[in-house]
Amino acid sequence: MTMHRFMRWLQTACLFALVNLSVCAQDNVSTGPDPLTLNDNESIYLRGLNADSAVEPVRLRILGARSTMGSVVAQVVVLDKRGNFIRNADRTLVWTSMYGCRREPMSTSVSPAVNEQVWRSITTPTLLEVIIDNSLTSDGIATPILRSLRDKLPGFAGRDSIGIITYSHIFDEITPIASYLDASSAIDPNATNQPGGLAATYTTMFTALKKLEDHKHASNILVVVTASNDVASLPSMLTNVIRKANEIRATIHVIKIGSSVQGYIYRYIAAASGGRLYSIASENVGEVADIIREITYGSKQHFEVTIPVPMIPAECDDLLIKISAGIEGTSDVFADTILVPRREKNFYSGRSIVAMFNDTTDKGLQDYYPILTALAEELMSDPAKQLQLVGHVSADLKGDADKRALERAGYVADFLKAYGVKENQISLSSNGNRKPVYYLQLDGTQRLMNNRVEAYFISEDDFPYTIVVDQFASEEQAIKGVESWETRGYKAYFEPIVLKRVPAYRLKLWGYRNRSEAEKAMSSVRKLVKTTVFIE
Q: How many Å apart are CA 363 and CA 359, to the nearest integer?
């Protein structure tokens, strides 16, 4: 019996329990097929294989890259117009690569080493955990995505495993890690919870990585599908996600939906773990299942492209890599670029929203108990930690905005103290209606986001102090201001505010552990500006 026929027999025997079940147990994961079959339907994503040496490629995509000692190793697929992987393309294509530091021209050209990784029956199995945004700001993407996964998962080649979670500041496990077929059977799009709650994306990512940690004999991948910026994770969670992914050698891919998401942070998360950021329009959510299939197949069938990068300036934080493949004897060239972080980044994450309110009472606070309980547990684990609660109200609220906002912060403080947090660990402040999330409240969701309480730890390790250096009338001006300060060597960001019902953009320098450190820096900053400078 050939190996291929034996594997077919073994699959059937396992299905009907005709052999010892221990032979079938492989962490609920198995691999196949060998090789992928030809796909005849047109697709821009990897979904099949074409061994015809005469077929013409139409696209090249980098699925991820990792930096090693003196080189960058990237996973690349070359596809025909039907989404078939073109095997042996390194024999018919001429490969080139370039690299350079971000914000500088890619001036260094080097010849890469190209090695084809082929999906075989002995290939390490792939295990995916997929988390799907179902928060108030998700635009309701969960239901159509689950419907598409239910319909398409049974058609995925191979017998790898997948788990699916929908999330806001709590999560709902649609299916535990299971085969494609079992996962498909467990999905009921009509039973999906209505979108609600706050997007705690980083916290959910960390939870999903902890679940993957238990499966040590698989190629672990986390796929994040989101239409929201994270607003509810604790500030330290972003760093924890990157460290956990690299600790367990899990790759993170992010599928960003819509144009309102902060892609640069999600791009960093994916790149820092060897994955890719996919960006699609809101009307194309049906493509998510196709992208997940590409991620699955590409983890086992790809070109491993090794690029030597011996000369990198010490101050270079990010490498920009470009990989090209040209058809020999023609001018046809296909290329893609990817960012490769060289060190851990400390993004300014702002403050986490811990509760929202429909009215001026504490009604609805129980909806946020999962966030508040986690917050209380963290405070109680370290009595030295100090928490600042900041209340906000919307511009249409009548009466004293600062007083109302402070009352809301007090509702949250009352819960934390009742849970067991010491009173001296909590301080309250108010921003009134000066810092809305949405300037124009077009619906109830946006009004709810404006009526909120934020929280942040007052810790030197979190660099909580900022210096306000300028203010602009437009976001474009603020972006240029940030870039100008960054070229001077400062860490800068801008935040939107409202002054006398008019939007403005306040530019801040950050990264100061305490007030005395910020005050010392202010003496140098004042020499560079004509505006009034102050500490927040």
A: 7
> Each residue of 411-464: pLDDT tens digit?
999 999 999 999 999 989 888 888 777 766 666 777 888 888 988 777 555 566
Residues contacting 358, CB < 8 A, separation 6+? 364, 448, 451
Residue 143: CB atoms within 10 A of its CB come to 19
Cα–Cα–Cα angle for 206, 382, 371, rounded to 5 degrees: 45
Let me know: does 250 contact 218? Beta carbons within 8 Å.
Answer: no
Asked whether the beta carbons of 371 and 198 are under 8 A apart, the reply is yes
Which residue matches tokens 């821009």? 44
Q: How far is CA 466 from the centre of its chain?
A: 26
Torsions phi, psi for 339 (to 5 deg) = -95, 135
Region 314-324: mean pLDDT is 86
Going by C-beta distance under 8 Å and a sequence separation of 6 or more, which residues neighbour residue 73?
65, 66, 304, 305, 306, 307
All domains in the chain, ordered by first residue: 25-348 (3.40.50.410), 351-457 (3.30.1330.60), 463-536 (3.30.70.1070)
Write down the mean pLDDT value for the chain.
Answer: 83
Alpha helices in 324-470 (DSSP H): 369-381, 401-419, 444-450
What angle, 0 to 180 degrees and rounded to 10, lies between the N-to-C axes of helices 201-213 and 237-247? 20
CA torsion sign for 416, 419, 424, 425 is negative
Closest to 45 in 3D by CA, of 411, 297, 215? 297
pTM of the full structure: 0.75
Instruction: Give all strands (DSSP E) within 181-218, no chain letters.
Output: none
